[in-house]
């Protein structure tokens, strides 16, 4: 059987996600070993040279499996230059299993028939079939005997250069998948597509993919060894701008429908992106409410980029990386844009350190002279923020919403009066416009050396930005829609406290109250809340879902995000069996009393 499969390596100790690597299909071939030696191919023993062989797999090296004359076994051969490269750069490119695929078995394989690959050369042409649905290269295993053999290392540490190479790889992988599908389609109609020209094209494409994999592996290796990629000698030495801490016990944030739409889109992407669709060639999440619709779109960072199939697949790959952390970063940026002073061009700065502080991420603490001092945040945490900022720059929104318009109208008695009218507000813009970025290697010189000689990683750590023009009507007049953000909303763990985080956001927006009225009480349907927030429902054990919901609501009450919550008294009794649909229709009453009156502001819609 000819297979290509995913194999689990273990768990990333930082992200607690499973790390997987890829095996190419084994296609036995009949070739002359002496001729291979002449062509500078060498045999490799996967059992005796396990680290080397795993490195070759992770760098997508071409492996030929020669049939042995004595038995039915095969012997692996690789090009000598690939073996040398793998020996000096022991890095295995790997990936995390996407959430929508985690329900699969421990390995996922493809098993095309022998007829499908009869005319194919020995290289793993089926790479696209098994790797197109994952983020190959988003994490790597770096050989480190001191770390017990292999040490996980993430793409974010490599900066934009690493991300750019990975995105090139994903486009090549996607195109290989397209080629494979086209080939199988033609074979069903008994045509021969893989003639010499097509094979040559695919060989050339796979060679390019292999070279990109080696290049990315080299970046991983240099970064892990403390040798950053070379940067331009024209890089300026910069200092971080002032970024005041504005959240504190709480702060104002914009809270119109488009903000809620983006948060819903990011949460849904983390849950599997079931409500995302391809509209006008780009991944799109449509958020419909009574007063309007918001389209959240994921577009290339460069508007001139051609939307070919490879680019679209690359955009979808980025969508699947979105999570509640992206939502936290967005909320932090909105808070900073409202409360922090703007420069002369209406821009505002925010740093990765500040965002992590808002989220309650603990920095590294070191003891010196018997006292603890703050030593900065972990590089992997700063890299996560940088990745979120990169994805956010690709987020666009199209707003179509009915809003009020206060205009002066002259009456018959020659005195003006305000007559509120409603009109359809439409706007299309980036979610956030990032205009300037400061990277870690730009901050200082050491021993008089230029930045390119420093052992620092090129990680973006500060951004100057403006909120997109879509927000303008929601910050003034009758359409002013703002909410009071408590830092606890950002502090909930996005993985272990997903229910608390999403429910806290929900009530931040839905329980804005007028502090002069002393309190507010709202009612909501359980199922609609769960659907809105893309929270999971356990159909086999619904009691776990109910208990998880109630536990999260109790936590919000304990953390003073709500004053009280109860099921309304006129909910029907739950049946003894198949009670989940009934419970999902239950209504709950949530209160914010005068003790919380300063936590919320008037809701405008």
Topology diagram in text:
Blueprint: E1 4-11, E2 18-23, E3 28-29, H1 33-38, E4 41-44, H2 50-58, E5 63-67, E6 74-79, H3 80-88, E7 91-96, E8 109-110, H4 114-117, H5 127-131, E9 139-144, E10 149-154, H6 159-188, H7 196-224, E11 251-254, H8 257-270, E12 276-279, E13 282-289, E14 292-298, H9 309-319, H10 324-339, E15 348-351, H11 352-358, E16 365-368, E17 371-374, H12 379-392, E18 395-405, E19 408-410, E20 416-418, E21 421-430, E22 432-439, E23 460-467, E24 482-485, H13 487-491, H14 498-510, E25 520-525, H15 526-532, H16 542-558, E26 564-567, H17 580-584, E27 587-592
Helix pairs in contact: 6-7, 6-9, 8-10, 10-12, 11-12, 14-16
Characterization of the model:
The protein is an alpha+beta fold. It contains 17 helices and 27 strands. A six-stranded antiparallel sheet has the order 8-1-2-7-9-10. Strand 9 (139-144) and strand 10 form a beta hairpin. Helix 8 (257-270) runs antiparallel to helix 10 (324-339) and helix 10 crosses helix 12. The radius of gyration is 28 Å and the shape is globular. The chain starts with a strand and ends in a 13-residue tail after the last strand.
């Amino acid at each position: 059987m000819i297979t290509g499969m995913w194999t689990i390596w273990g768990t990333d100790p930082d992200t607690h996600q499973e790390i997987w690597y890829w095996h190419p299909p084994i296609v036995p071939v009949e070739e002359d070993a002496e001729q291979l030696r002449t062509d500078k191919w060498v045999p490799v023993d996967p059992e005796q040279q396990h680290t080397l062989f795993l490195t070759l797999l992770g760098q997508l090296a071409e492996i030929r499996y020669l049939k042995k004359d004595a038995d039915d076994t095969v012997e692996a051969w690789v090009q000598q230059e690939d073996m040398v490269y793998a020996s000096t750069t022991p890095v295995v490119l790997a990936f995390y299993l996407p959430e929508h695929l985690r329900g699969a078995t421990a390995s996922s394989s493809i098993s095309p028939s022998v007829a499908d690959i009869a005319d194919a050369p020995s290289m793993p042409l089926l790479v696209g079939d098994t790797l197109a649905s994952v983020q190959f290269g988003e994490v790597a295993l770096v050989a480190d005997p001191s770390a017990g053999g292999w040490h996980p290392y993430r793409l974010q540490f490599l900066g934009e250069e690493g991300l750019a190479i990975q995105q090139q790889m994903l486009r090549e992988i996607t195109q290989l998948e397209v080629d494979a599908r086209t080939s199988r389609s033609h074979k069903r109609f008994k045509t021969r597509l893989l003639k010499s020209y097509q094979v040559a094209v695919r060989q050339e494409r796979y060679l390019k993919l292999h070279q990109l994999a080696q290049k990315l592996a080299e970046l991983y290796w240099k970064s892990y060894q403390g040798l950053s990629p070379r940067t331009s000698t024209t890089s300026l030495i910069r200092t971080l701008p002032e970024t005041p801490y504005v959240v504190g016990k709480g702060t104002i944030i914009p809270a119109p429908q488009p903000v809620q739409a983006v948060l819903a889109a990011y949460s849904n992407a983390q849950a599997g992106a079931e409500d995302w669709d391809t509209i006008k060639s780009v991944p799109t999440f449509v958020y419909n409410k009574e007063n309007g619709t918001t389209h959240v779109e994921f577009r290339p960072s460069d508007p001139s980029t051609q939307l070919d199939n490879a680019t679209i697949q690359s955009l979808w790959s980025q969508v699947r990386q979105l999570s509640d952390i992206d939502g936290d970063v967005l909320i932090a940026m909105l808070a900073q844009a409202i409360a922090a002073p703007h420069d002369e061009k209406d821009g505002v700065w925010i740093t990765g350190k500040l965002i992590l502080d808002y989220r309650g991420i603990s920095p590294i603490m070191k003891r010196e002279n018997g006292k603890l001092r703050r030593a900065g945040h972990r590089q992997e945490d700063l890299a996560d923020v940088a990745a979120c900022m990169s994805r956010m720059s690709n987020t666009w929104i199209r707003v179509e919403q009915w809003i009020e318009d206060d205009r002066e109208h002259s009456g018959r008695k020659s005195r003006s009066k305000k007559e509120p009218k409603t009109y359809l507000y439409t706007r299309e813009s980036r979610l956030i416009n990032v205009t300037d970025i400061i990277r870690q290697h730009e901050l200082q010189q050491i021993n008089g050396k230029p930045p390119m000689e420093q052992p620092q990683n090129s990680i973006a750590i500060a951004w100057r930005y403006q909120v997109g023009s879509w927000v303008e009507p929601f910050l003034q007049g009758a359409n002013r829609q703002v909410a009071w953000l408590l830092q606890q909303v950002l502090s909930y763990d996005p993985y272990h406290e997903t229910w608390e985080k999403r429910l806290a956001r929900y009530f931040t927006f839905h329980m804005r109250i007028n502090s002069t009225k002393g309190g507010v009480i709202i009612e909501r349907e359980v199922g609609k809340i769960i659907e809105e927030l893309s929270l999971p429902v356990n159909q086999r054990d619904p009691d776990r879902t109910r208990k998880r919901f109630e536990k999260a609501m109790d936590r919000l009450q304990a953390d003073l995000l709500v004053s009280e919550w109860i099921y309304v008294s006129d909910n029907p009794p739950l049946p003894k069996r198949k009670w989940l649909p009934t419970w999902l229709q239950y209504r709950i009453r949530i209160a914010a009393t005068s003790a919380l009156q300063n936590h919320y502001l008037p809701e405008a819609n």
